[in-house]
Please model this.
Amino acid sequence: MERSLLDLQHELTEADIDVLRVIYADILGTIRAKDMLVSELGRVSHGGPAFCQGVWVTTTHGDVLDGASVLTDGLEDFISQIVPRTWRPMPWEPGVAYVVAGAANPDMTPNAFGPRTLLERIVGEYAAIGLTPVTGPELEFFIAQRRANGTPGYQQSATQAGRVYTSGATVDPQGTFLHLLRMLDRMRIGVFAGNHEFSASQYEINFWHGEALDAADRTLLLKAATKDVVARTGQYATFLGKPWTEEGGSGFHLHFSVVNADGDNLMHGVEGELSEMARHMIGGIVHHAAALTAFCNPTVNAFKRLGPDTLAPYRANWGYDNRSALVRIPPERGAGTRLEIRLGDGSANPYLMTAAILAAGLDGIRTRREPTGPVRGLAYGDEGGPVLPMNLGAALDALHNDSVLCDMLGGPLVEVFEVLKRDEIARYTEAVNDPETREVTSWEIEEYFLDY
Model:
């Protein structure tokens, strides 16, 4: 049974927590929050504090648009729904704790725009057929600092290239990453390792897989904590997919499997082969890949990370232990059998991306969709899979035209997502001399760097 807010108040008080930071992701993936006094928590009714629905249609720079009539309906309230089991201490800020929240309407019906609410519903559709989706997120990010001498923009905090899979002062000269790893450990969100990645000042945090909603909650906590801890050092953490033209990008890979009521992995078949269900999930994900690109790569900047010979996907395909494919099948079998969807960009909203991938997999299960054969070797030139959308506008077009996926995800949320993203494209096109450039522009840095 879920704990009440009064139970949560007692638990927090015993842990010497006097401020509770209620956080949730808006549709863009920006982390919104309100600090609540724990001493007053027991008086909160309906599950959490109220917020204006205008937050769902607010751009990164504060413009309020109108999507799904949110603005024309008068900017009504929604009520945050605190999830007591998600609270975690902020060890770098004694006496303060995070807690994740969902969203409901004032009459306590599910809010149509809440990303966490959407994922909760999709997980419920799996439960209705006796399945539990299990996910394992992998996120990369950069640590940066302001450019010297007042020059606008950011530079990497470490500049030595070629230091993938390394640790220590050469790749973490100020000890920021090591400090971050210790703080995340004390938060109890399942972090177990971390390392420097391919690009200078790029890092990856590894944490344990879990049921999809729990894993998305912990991803939100990871992002919030990473940005807060690093900011306190005078530096900045960004999950933006491509902050620098000359560097590689930051991905958000999602490992995905399903288990039955007994916890048995249903992805493996006989003699090391994939199960029929796993094949159908692959079929659904590859079939909806073009539309998925919009939620997995939700910025203008994200598409500068994609392309041939980038170790990011270029075509809608799959392969065994093949990092050039959209869906990679890692070599583990038995209980470790899973899909790795490599399409995601570090800026992706963990709830929307997970919900969209799960929905595509579920459609594959329902329609018993068989995939084409696996690709072998570097798959960029293999014409067996169509090229993915290579800009945000094309990805939005593909989403708009995928009626099955849009219906599964919910019309109002998809509509607001598209309104926000079409606005970004329009502002980018107006501001940049060559909108087709593969160079990372100052507009992208100003628009996205601190928010993602």
The first helix runs from residue 5 to 14. The mean pLDDT is 92.
